[in-house]
Write a structure and sequence with these properties.
Elements: E1 4-13, E2 18-21, E3 26-28, E4 37-42, H1 49-59, H2 62-67, E5 70-76, H3 80-90, E6 96-98, H4 103-107, E7 111-112, E8 120-121, E9 124-128, E10 133-139, H5 149-156
Parallel strand pairs: 4-5, 5-6
Antiparallel strand pairs: 1-10, 2-3, 2-6, 4-9, 7-8, 9-10
Length: about 160
């Protein structure tokens, strides 16, 4: 399951975000800046079976992520209520954040504008360090193309442990 991936030759500062989580809490990038790295998964939709399966797969690696001082976050283009239901159904151990207007996804360049019909948020995974610098970006055209945990972990190994 290979996605169009970019291991960046130059470092890229990620756009900031402040979103509402599935539990109603406010989560902002600056909450982690300076002390925690992040794996940010942009879901096409919480209703998409492949996106749901990948969320569960990421959740299985939460303890490995914590060993790298890394949080896992999911960002989806649905309202908080839909995310709360999906979070319960999937038994996730990381937050799902609502980007119902796809504003944050748009700043990441992940929104496809179409002549007819609704906007489409492309599924993607971004790994950034504790300063918000992206080291790895995987953007997919298909819902079943996702980076493996081994690819993600290889990026996390590049970050200083201190």
């Amino acid at each position: 399951m290979r996605a169009e991936t970019k291991t960046l030759r130059y470092l890229k500062k990620t756009p900031s975000y402040k979103l509402t989580g599935h539990d109603g809490s406010i989560v902002a990038q600056h909450h982690y800046t300076g002390h925690t790295h992040a794996v940010v998964y942009f879901l096409e939709s919480v209703g998409n079976p492949r996106c749901r399966a990948y969320c569960q797969e990421l959740g299985q690696h939460l303890s490995a992520a914590k060993a790298f001082k890394t949080v896992i976050l999911g960002i989806a283009p649905e309202p908080v209520e839909a995310l709360a239901q999906a979070h319960r159904e999937l038994g996730l151990s990381f937050p799902l954040l609502s980007d119902a207007q796809s504003e944050v996804a748009g700043r990441y360049g992940l929104v496809e504008k179409r002549w007819f019909g609704p906007l489409r948020q492309r599924p993607a995974l971004v790994v950034h360090d504790k300063y918000g610098i992206a080291y790895y970006i995987a953007v997919s055209e298909k819902a079943d193309e996702r980076p493996s945990w081994e690819e993600i972990e290889a990026t996390l190994r590049r970050f200083p442990r201190g």
